[in-house]
Specification:
Shape: elongated
Number of helices: 5
Radius of gyration: 54 Å
Largest sheet: 5 strands, antiparallel
Helix content: 25-40%
Strand content: 15-25%
Amino acid sequence: MNRLRTRMEWHEMNEQSILRLRFACLPWRWAQRLLACVLLFGMLPAIAACGADKEEPPTPTPSPAAEVAAVTQPAESPLPVPGATEAQPASEPDAVQPTAAVTVTVAANGSTAVFVPLEVEPGIGCEIESHIDLAGYPNLEDLLGCPTEAALLDPIAINEFGEGPEFDRFMLWFSHEDLIYILFPDGRWQSYADTWEESEPTYPCNPLGGEPDSPPLPRRGFGKLWCSDPQLQEIMGTVPKEERLCQHSVLQRFAGGRLLACFEDATIRYFRILDNHTWDVVVQ
């Protein structure tokens, strides 16, 4: 019993010693923790300062050329631009190959022009026949191609200008169109509306003085057009004959233009009035 009591007392003393030791160590452990906290909070500004001292990589500054390119480069539009299409290479016009050259003298200014007629595919096996009164024109369908319309026999008026007998400038009046065609001495032609009325003077002007008469003055629609432009008067000159209707006229359209046959007594004038606004004449 004594031994048992002694052991129990010894254990009791050991437990009390251990508790005293633990309580004695408590202040030291708290002191360690407090010191660690103080050190940690004291190091935070230093850590922040280290992070602030780290230099950021410099931002590249765009060069002036790059800025201009950025400004001038158009933004891609989400909508198509009206009328904007991809540029196509311009096709070259078909070359006009001369089949013959007719030299005409421009009496108004003394220059010389060379007329280059239009070339077309020769007419072979044409569906529409050329009028029989055009058969006297040499190589008709080789030069003009196939007829595209039936011939017209409507009245056509004619007036030569300048000096003859080989006239190189004319005015023609097509009754079915009520148009006046001026055939210039340089091989070009141009059409104008016939605005002359029966109530207007037969001779719209008389720059030559004296009693108006034809010749030398053109009259009616030809005269009105001639009087409208002094430059036209200089180019065309005066008329050696008065205007008149062809005794018989045949006009037919072909692939390359129109052919007019104007019959007067024993003379036939074949006028080629081409779609490229050039003309020539063959007299038989």
